[in-house]
Each structure stands twice: as C-alpha cells, then as structure tokens.
Design a protein that fits this description.
The chain is an alpha+beta fold. The chain has helices at about 1-30, 55-60, 175; strands at about 35, 40, 70-75, 90-95, 100-110, 125, 140-145, 150-155, 160-170, 185-190. Helix 1 crosses helix 2. The longest helix is centred in the first third of the chain and has 28 residues, at about 1-30.
Length: about 190
C-alpha cells in the first residue's frame, strides 16, 4: 500500500512539473522562429502541417486566429536592431518600405500576447493606413509619448515589454518560400524614460 501511494505521488508530481513546464514554454515563447531578418523572426513551420505540437500550442496561445502559411507570413520582433528587448518606456523608430506582399500590417502586443490598451484605440498600421514619406517609405514611432504622424502607443509602464508582429498577407512566392531574403523595417531605439 505504501509503495502504491508513493507511485501515485511520483506520477502526480511528474504530471504537475511536466504540464507546468510545457505551459511556461508555450506562454513564454511567443511567435519567434528559426529564420531571422534583423530583429524580426519567423518560422517556416508556422501554419503548416510540419509544425510540432509545441509550435501548434504556441500559435494557439500567441497567434489567436492565425492564418496558414499559404496565406500569410508572420514576423515577430521582441528586440530592436541592437538586440535589446523592446520596452514600453522606450521610444523606437520603425522605418522601412512595403514588404513583398499584396497587403501588410504591423501590430503591437504586450507580453501577454494581447493588445496594449491606449486611449486612442490605436494598435497597428497597415499598407493602406500608414502615412508615407516623399519616397514612399514609412516611419512609425512606437513609444509612450504621443507624436505627430504614425504612432503606436506602448503604454509606457516601466518594466513592461512588448512585441511587434508584421504580417505579410498574400506574400510574393519567393517571400513565402524563403523569408530570410525579405527586406523588413528597421527598429531603432531613440530614447528611454529615465
């Protein structure tokens, strides 16, 4: 009887540790991947039948309602060009030109993978809503202080982090096949609150 109770206790502890570590991995990993383009990351298996169970679970948590790879390529940045984590109390300049897709959008998400509340209800820009520079490129300021032009609020709380998700809808075939060759916007830190 004593041996059976010990076995049951060991199994329960193993299940708790296994489920807990899997949950921490799934919730903490976000939508990074094995392909990097500057600060942006993607995975060749996201949205495909080759995705392993952990990747599918990550998408279910962090990429709610994600489309399959044939329709959309997702890039996520949780760091700037210098490799520093994106912080809500810092201001960043994201500059680039249209990526190779029929339509694109970039959206800011908090560490919990949800939109960050802000009084303007502004969470993203897309190819048809972003204000352009004279040469057709764009600059989006991401930070706690309101600015003129394209601005996505971060919330500004010290210690909070966020990520940016860039979606390429109906990407050009080469971009879908080899996303490592796509030219994506730079993310440069401008300043942080002290």
């Amino acid at each position: 009887m004593k041996l059976a109770l010990k076995l049951v206790a060991v199994v329960i502890v193993a299940l708790i540790i296994g489920a807990g570590s899997a949950l921490l991995f799934i919730r903490g990993a976000g939508l990074g991947g094995d392909v990097a383009v500057g600060p942006w990351q993607t995975s060749l298996v996201i949205g495909s039948s080759q995705a392993d169970p952990y990747t599918r679970a990550q998408i279910a948590v962090a990429g709610l309602l994600a489309l399959n790879r044939a329709e959309t390529v997702y890039f996520t940045a949780s760091h700037d060009d210098a490799g520093d984590k994106l912080r809500s109390d810092c201001t960043y300049k994201m500059a680039g030109s249209d990526p190779p897709a029929r339509w694109w959008s970039v959206t800011l998400y908090g560490a919990d993978h949800y939109l960050v509340p802000n009084p303007l209800d502004r969470y993203s820009y897309g190819g048809d809503t972003v204000a352009r520079e004279a040469d057709g490129s764009f600059v989006i300021v991401v930070g706690p202080e309101e600015t003129n032009g394209n601005w996505i609020p971060t919330g500004g709380r010290t210690g909070d982090t966020f990520s940016l998700t860039l979606r390429l809808y109906n990407p050009e075939p080469e971009a879908a096949r080899d996303p490592s060759g796509v030219v994506l916007p730079h993310i440069a830190k401008e300043a942080c609150r002290t």
